[in-house]
Design a protein that fits this description.
Elements lengths: L24 H6 L17 H4 L2 H14 L18 H12 L13
Length: 110
Amino acid sequence: MNALDNAEGAVLPTMAPTSAPVESAEELIREGKAWGLSTAVDLHGCRPEAIRDRNQIEAYVIALCKLIRMKRFGKCQIVHFGGYDPALVEEFSRKFFGARSSTASVTMRY
């Protein structure tokens, strides 16, 4: 039996191991090895009235941009876009950029 079989809620690494020394995000971008950085944070057990409130989300975005020293362009936009087909997005992206293969990770957010 695997040790994780009963480890409900176990935190596992999300990045594949690398054999090369890890460079900082700034170095990778500066050297042209990466074009940018994206971070997805899943929060659990939030206060529903805060996570669903347009004004709270706008205040969060403005404060976060200030914290990480990110330059904002224009007024903060909070838009509910609706759903989409992840397989269609993956296929289109693969063809558009000429990728030989692709992998998509889809997370349902509640």
